[in-house]
Design a protein that fits this description.
By secondary structure, the chain is α+β, with helices and mostly antiparallel strands. A hairpin with a 5-residue loop joins β27 and β28. α9 runs antiparallel to α10 and α10 crosses α11.
Length: 893
């Protein structure tokens, strides 16, 4: 089969169009597909399938459909390079296909002729597709964000280029639906109208899943466990799911065979055999899922007692066949050779939605963003236990009870070991009076938690007694023999009971306990006293009520030189409001302190979270950017009462100095009043959240400040425009900035392979800043060495384009990677900080997809507020994207 890109090259002038020139790129993993929405002379959709190193392409005038009754004409066009799969933008007038293009859908695919899927065998998949194309009939299974399931392409007789694209009838078919109503790009969120209007792309993620890495099939994976939250909450950085009342189960699929595992790693496939066929029909060669097996009652509600009765009935010939079982899936840990556990939860959810084939027996758990309180109330109203809250940016911590997942329950319950029972009296003479409960303390010893004597009926009393009789022992299993109100019989601590209770007493006993059920899925050795975790605080700098910011802007619009504003209940005097901070530049009017304060107020909901808990170095320009300038680290005279400070020991003098921390809007506006144009923040913080437990005393503050949240790469292009004065630094020019963007993308590729998330922003001057969020296990010295090693690795791959030379005169013509910023006390301009340059540019966080499409002068204190209102902050989840740097480097060895 011909795979010639010459026609593609011949039709395009790559000096004029942003479309990618072909470049050799080896393929790996499942084959990919893309559907691009393209408004040229007429609106159409380009359907493209990867095979043999190119994208086989069809123009579909009416677009694909999920309705099996629709037949859509698909005209075969020239092959496109693989790089084209991520292309979005404007093809200029005069060029072939001039008009707007977005990535309407994308994903992976496999030929599925005869029902066999080949996601894990690229060679056989390409052979099958090649054969189908030659015969004029292709059947493929798509795992996209919009298009899912089986489709066919059939060549029209006697018309060389014409084919028909049709949806097969399967569980993904949607008769009568219009999938084209979903107009936005799956990459950027833009529509073709947005592209035409030049609107920037909202942050929607990247083509590659950060943190995903090739790995052998793991088999059973110990599940991640949740801690107990003190109550329901809402938070923009968390996702919320209903808490299902069933048995936690890991499902694995390999080579067409599915197995089910309890949370203890026991193979329970035989117990839930009816679920296996639906799991084996999933469109994946190898797969690891996390979910909950539940049973439904006659009203269609989740029923734990029904599940227990089903399992008990397996010992009888009827095998409980009438009980409806469902495996509800909420996470994907592994897919077709790729381990996803280090990817963020949000990215794993996207993968899961694109790959899972829902059936009556295998279903997706719905999740909701931000509004956890509503999810919790709805769960309770529907008879569920409560809700599960999960940090959107969290990785999957296999086998660990993590604060990144929190369970929110209507009643307090916990698991306890049954370590004995007291003698029964009266009607209970033949069974027992109360169960003696315990849990493992920090040393692993069994501690007494009290006794429970309610919650049993006659059948349960008899069943429990039979279960306990073989466990009798002469020795008390508790570390300290408890006092009981009746003679005790001791048991080996092997049974686990779930107990409802009102609270703990001061002496460590359960108050008002009620027996709920046995939990055979919970290992007795893992039973600990339930710890209630405080709910996450709202993010610092969470958006102020709009009237507060609107009120500040209204007051700043008054034509006065001085005014006193009330901000969050604090009074703040603002003076010299028309003082010019940025002079007139060409046709651009001068910008004043008033303009700076308006900017700070409007962007405060996005800016304050990036300043929170970080010591600041002030960069003040009281006479404007052409006047006096001075740096200020410490503050020695009285401060407004709303300003937070922290004392930090100086490594040079050994004495403490007082640093300002900006964690509220009054402080931010006060800094503007001081003409602190640049906000330079440390890379470490004085707060332990979300990844450390240290806080409080000064020695702990010092510990925290020695451990950075990021490793930093400062990319400076030493590529001159030719207009600079002799000996001057390079000025901003497009060639240099584009080259810096290319180096940033190379760096991101390396970081992706290490499983590290990367965030990019303009410096506000000529270069780019790359921030890599890391778990705070390492000090600055170690982080700096890691940054240097990564930079050296990239330098070896691109020695002609990159330099790490200290001497500026030896950097000419290349992009300088500065890793030396990774030192305690060093700072860079914060995200959304203004810069002291003409036109008042801003250090602007970018979606990675925007590199090559934007220019630093696009982002100024006049343009950024409107941009943020449209697109939001692409760095909003940066701390939730932390990865273990030491672990990533160890895996790379």
């Amino acid at each position: 089969m011909s795979t010639d890109l010459e026609e593609y090259r011949r039709k395009r002038d790559f000096e004029r169009t942003a479309e990618p020139a072909p470049a050799a790129r080896p393929g790996a993993g499942p084959l990919t597909f893309v559907v691009q929405k393209h408004r040229a002379r007429a609106l159409h959709y380009d359907f493209r399938l990867e095979v043999d190193g190119v994208l086989k392409s069809w123009s579909v005038p009416k677009g694909p459909s999920l309705d099996p009754g629709e037949k859509r004409l698909a005209v075969m066009v020239e092959d496109h390079p693989l790089e084209y799969a991520s292309f979005e933008g404007m093809i200029p007038k005069g060029e072939y296909g001039a008009g707007e293009v977005i990535v309407w859908d994308r994903g992976t695919y496999s030929p599925d002729e005869g029902g066999q899927l080949l996601f894990a065998d690229r060679q056989r998949a390409e052979t099958a597709l090649r054969t189908g194309l030659e015969k004029g009939k292709v059947s493929v299974f798509l795992r996209g964000e919009k298009l899912k399931g089986s489709f066919t392409l059939v060549k029209v007789a006697r018309r060389e280029k014409d084919w028909l694209l049709m949806k097969h009838r399967d569980e993904h078919a949607r008769p009568g639906s219009d999938i084209l109503a979903e107009e936005s790009s799956v990459v950027s969120g833009r529509t073709v109208e947005d592209v035409k209007a030049g609107r920037s792309a909202p942050p929607r993620g990247h083509a590659e899943v950060a943190g995903a890495r090739p790995a052998p099939f793991p088999g059973f994976v110990p599940p991640m466990l949740a801690q107990l939250a003190s109550g329901p909450f809402s938070h923009p950085d968390w996702l919320f799911e209903p808490k299902l009342d069933g048995y936690r189960t890991i499902a694995t699929v390999e080579d067409g065979h599915a197995r089910l595992w309890s949370r203890r790693g026991l193979d329970v496939t035989a117990q839930y055999a009816r679920l296996v066929p639906d799991l084996e029909r999933q469109p994946a060669a190898s797969l690891v899922l996390d979910g909950e097996i539940v049973a439904m009652d006659e009203r269609g509600r989740v029923c734990f007692q029904c599940l227990q009765r089903y399992l008990q009935s397996l010992r009888r010939p009827d095998a409980g066949s009438q009980v409806p079982l469902i495996y509800y899936v909420f996470d994907v840990l592994y897919l077709d050779g790729i381990d996803l556990r280090d990817a963020s939860l949000r990215e794993r959810k996207k993968v899961l939605q694109s790959v899972l084939r829902p059936t009556d027996a295998v279903r997706l758990v719905d999740y909701f963003e931000r509004d956890g309180e509503t999810v919790y109330r709805a769960a309770i109203q529907n008879g569920l236990e409560g809700a599960i809250a999960k940090q959107a940016g969290s990785r999957y911590e296999s086998g660990r009870r993590s604060g990144s997942w929190l369970k929110i329950k209507a009643t307090q319950t916990g698991e306890f070991v049954i370590a004995g029972y007291t003698a029964g009296e009266g009607a209970r003479r033949g069974s027992f009076g109360a169960l003696l409960l315990g849990y493992r303390d920090e040393e692993g010893k069994l501690a007494y938690a009290g006794h429970v004597g309610t919650g049993f009926d006659e059948t349960l009393l008899g069943d429990l007694k039979k279960r306990m009789d073989p466990l009798h022992t002469d020795s008390c299993p508790f570390a300290t023999v408890p006092a009981t109100n009746a003679p005790a019989t001791w048991l080996r601590p092997e049974l686990v009971a779930e107990i409802k209770y009102s609270q703990w007493t001061a002496d460590g006993r359960l108050r008002a306990p009620v027996f709920l059920r046995l939990r055979e899925d919970k290992p007795p050795e893992d039973v600990r006293r339930p710890v209630v975790v405080p709910i996450p605080a709202p993010p610092a700098g969470a958006p102020q009520p709009e009237p507060a910011i609107d009120n500040i802007l209204t007051q700043l619009a008054r034509p006065v030189q001085e005014l006193t504003v009330t901000v969050a209940g604090k009074r703040l005097k603002l003076t010299n409001l028309d003082k010019e901070l940025w002079p007139q530049t060409g046709a651009h009017a001068a910008l004043t302190k008033r303009d700076l304060l308006k900017y700070l107020a409007r962007v405060s909901p996005h800016l304050l979270p990036h300043l929170r808990d970080r010591p600041l170095t002030l960069s003040r320009y009281p006479s404007g950017i052409d006047g006096e300038h001075f740096w200020q680290k410490h503050w020695t005279h009285p401060l407004p009462e709303f300003v937070t400070t922290v004392n930090i020991m100086s490594e040079e003098t050994g004495k403490p100095g007082e640093y300002i921390v900006c964690d509220n809007l009054p402080t931010l506006l006060w800094l503007g009043q001081l003409a602190d144009i640049e906000l330079h923040t440390w890379f470490s913080r004085i707060s332990p959240e979300p990844d450390l437990d240290h806080a409080g005393p000064q020695r702990d503050i010092e510990f925290l400040l020695d451990r950075p949240d990021f490793i930093i790469f400062d990319l400076d292009p030493y590529i001159y425009s030719g207009k600079e004065a002799k000996g001057a630094e390079p000025e901003l020019n497009r060639k240099a900035f584009d080259r810096g963007g290319q180096v940033a993308l190379w760096l991101k590729e390396v970081l992706d392979r290490l499983g590290l998330a990367a965030f990019v922003k303009t410096s506000g001057k000529t270069g780019l800043h790359i921030y890599v969020p890391i778990v705070r296990k390492l000090d600055y010295r170690t982080a700096r060495k890691a940054a240097e090693s990564i930079g050296q690795f990239l330098l070896k791959s691109h020695p002609a384009e990159i330099t790490m030379e200290w001497a500026p005169e030896r950097r000419t013509g290349r992009v300088y990677i500065d890793y030396a910023q990774n030192v305690r006390g060093k700072t860079l301009a914060s995200a959304y900080s203004a810069r002291p340059l003409p036109l008042a540019p801003v250090s602007m966080p970018l979606p990675w997809a925007d590199l090559g499409k934007v220019y630093p002068t696009d982002f100024t204190i006049l343009t950024v507020p409107d941009h943020l209102e449209r697109a939001g902050d692409p760095w909003a989840d940066i701390l939730a994207a932390k990865r273990d740097l030491a672990e990533a480097l160890e895996k790379a060895r």
